[in-house]
Amino acid sequence: MEDSGGVRILTGALMQQNTHVQVSTESGTLMRVPQAITSEIEATLWVGQNEVKREKSVSQAVELKAAKEVLVSVIVPNYNYARYLPMRIESILNQTFTNFELILLDDASTDESVSILEKYRDNEYVSHIVINEQNTGSPFQQWMKGLSLAQGKYVWIAEADDLAEPTFLEICVRSMQEKKNVSVCYTGSLLIDANGRISGKDINHWGKRKVKGTSCFDGILFVTHNLYWKNYIINASGALFLRKNALELSGSPFRNMLCCGDWLFWVEMAIKGKVVEIYKNLNYFRQHPAKVTVSSHKAGRGVMEDIQIVKYMENKLGGRLNKYKMRLRHGLLYRKIKRLPVNASQKEPIFRYLYDVMHAGVSEYRVERFNKYLKLLIPALITAKRDRLN
What we know:
Layout: E1 15-17, E2 20-24, E3 30-34, H1 40-52, H2 57-66, E4 72-78, H3 85-93, E5 100-106, H4 113-118, E6 126-131, H5 139-149, E7 154-157, E8 163-164, H6 168-178, E9 182-192, E10 214-218, H7 219-227, E11 239-242, H8 243-247, H9 261-271, E12 274-286, H10 292-298, H11 301-317, H12 323-338, H13 344-358, H14 362-374, H15 384-387
Parallel strand pairs: 4-5, 4-7, 5-6, 9-12
Antiparallel strand pairs: 1-2, 2-3, 7-11, 8-12, 9-11, 10-12
């Protein structure tokens, strides 16, 4: 297995040895990797960063401190992810693009997170470490706290449990600078589990788009044809965005959401400029039961927030959406409520909320079901997949 840094992990080279794992690199050297790193992808990234990328270290960081302007602010919002923090922070410090500051935030963790963060207090890239005394209850309030401290033109919200390829910032910054008025740029993601094992599930659904390398879309069109159906920017860790646009969202309702605030954030950001898609998997999006959104979605709160966001887009887009498309979208919301793993008495207030907000009910659900089968006979009939920008 070989990563973008040219480091290969040979078959059978991972061996448990006391508190470490030994990894055989391409140069033939054995490197000691923390035993917490239990997968090939985590080990590959760790070796690539610590054998190949360390060369840039101190001298570049000193130059950064002396520079008048930091180009990228990297915000790491953390809550009880001590297990993943060291790998996450190292994957940031070892980026091939080096003109960044690192802002570390902790939302009153009860594990060993704070002691881990404190180890980086004297790191040349770290500009702020902020530890909350009380938990805010919302990851998106932490986003805005980080934005208020940030100095860079661009911002990367690097979630504490995810990982990135070393070239993530280099490729994203270049893509944003190549086009005018880009508000958001995002890359492909691969799912990894709690132990760093890569899932085979395709969450990007690029199809033939992949051969293009990148695409740049008008933001309003991106909302109309892409984000109206679902949040294609599935993970903040895979995106870079313009700070000045984000600062204008300080009063946005996304701040108080628990599950889907990122979707509304990307909608509002896209409206302010262009959106660039990069058809490369540069982000590793971790899935595990501890994620706050898992339990919230199961309880139905996620669907309630979905309804609010779809209604927000309809108000913003106005005549860009025809009535059939809106009825189809409302039917998808009804179907989502219908499929929630809760009993009928728990679903009833959510159905009522859908009707109160959108005057949508079982008739929209029937439209959606009818459309599902009619699309097989009418190739031009609208669906979420067919409506997506190419």
